[in-house]
Amino acid sequence: MVKLMSKCIVIGAGPGGMSAAIYLKRAGIDVILIEKMVPGGEMLKTNKIENYLGFDSIDGGELALRMSSQVKDLGIEIIRDDITDISYDNTFIVTGLKNKYQADYVIIATGRVPRKLGLDMEEALLNRGISYCATCDGAFYKGKEVAIVGGGDSALTEALYLSDICLKVYVLVRKDLKASDILQNRVKNKDNIVILKNVSVSQFISSDSLTGVLLNDGRKLDVNGLFIAIGGTPDISFLKNLNVDTINGYIKTDDKMRTNIKGLYAVGDVRYKDFYQIITAASDGAIAALSIREDD
Ligand SMILES: Cc1cc2nc3c(=O)[nH]c(=O)nc-3n(C[C@H](O)[C@H](O)[C@H](O)COP(=O)(O)OP(=O)(O)OC[C@H]3O[C@@H](n4cnc5c(N)ncnc54)[C@H](O)[C@@H]3O)c2cc1C
């Protein structure tokens, strides 16, 4: 394994990580940005972003591309690797599936992974009817009936996207909708979106793939696709060797993005905070980079 060295390593190339890398580079701090998939993070899951400063409306993929171009144009290399462990021995040793890396400072910007319903067959039916991303998989359900679980902004964004592709879209909400009024109004104006409140999925019905779901009130919905949009939780198993303070599974930081471990920072959806948005992730990234400049 090659060991690559840098003053700072940013793990995760979503808006939080990319913003941090840009601020670090511009502050003259040597930085490596490591991403296990492609740059963009959760932005790649949405086709329409209408609340990011400077754009009335922009496709998530387009915004991701603009951010990653800015990163690359500054000469910051985005290394593709999946980080599995971080340890500390005078410096941080960051281990990925491909390489080992060494740095004085590490910024965790790994976001969160979709929360599962936790029902039997959920894993087995993944990509055979069950999905956690409408913009990624919606096209497979063209002209079919589908359902979405969840009542927040993400769920309604996905419902609107699917309503242009699918015959009918059921939105299954455990209690009431929590999404913004703008999204709720748009959904109300769509004839093929049906909101079912006070329901939950109790069982998947399938043969080789999903053919329907059974609801807690006994109703059966014949749907070919079920999109689960009930938020997420961070996967920070790679921090098992550092005693990082967390709150409800999210990394605890101060307002300068410092964790309880000296030299380790966390930004964006992976950290415990009130609002999980692109602009707040980007803001966190900028703050972490400027804090490192101050702390160094
Ligand atoms: C459907 C949907 C619609 C949304 N719409 C909006 C919207 O309209 N406006 C808005 O402001 N926000 C929206 N959001 C929320 C927004 O996308 C997130 O708050 C934001 O992307 C968080 O940024 P982040 O950088 O913290 O994490 P992420 O964007 O999740 O990026 C984390 C990155 O880290 C990488 N990573 C994870 N683990 C590792 C590892 N071990 N090694 C290497 N890399 C790793 C991931 O592959 C990923 O690229 C939406 C979210 C969803 C799901």
Features:
single chain; about 300 residues; alpha/beta; FAD/NAD(P)-binding domain; 2 domains; 7-stranded mixed beta sheet; 5-stranded parallel beta sheet; elongated; binds flavin-adenine dinucleotide
Summarize the structure.
By secondary structure, the protein is of the alpha/beta class. It is built from six helices and 19 strands.
CATH secondary-structure class of the largest domain: Alpha Beta
In whole angstroms, the N-to-C terminal distance is 28 Å
Average pLDDT level: 95
**How many domain units?**
2
CATH superfamily of the largest domain: FAD/NAD(P)-binding domain
Number of helices: 6
CATH topology descriptor of the largest domain:
FAD/NAD(P)-binding domain
**CATH architecture grouping of the largest domain:** 3-Layer(bba) Sandwich
Ligands and ions found: flavin-adenine dinucleotide
Radius of gyration: 20 Å
What is the approximate shape? elongated
Instruction: Profile the largest sheet.
Output: 7 strands, mixed
- Low-pLDDT stretches are none
- Topology as H/E string? EHEHEEEEEEHEHEHEEEEEEEEEH
Count all strands and give the number.
Answer: 19
What percentage of residues falls in helices of 4 or more residues? 10-25%
Please identify the structural class as seen in this structure. Answer: alpha/beta
| DSSP strand content | 25-35%
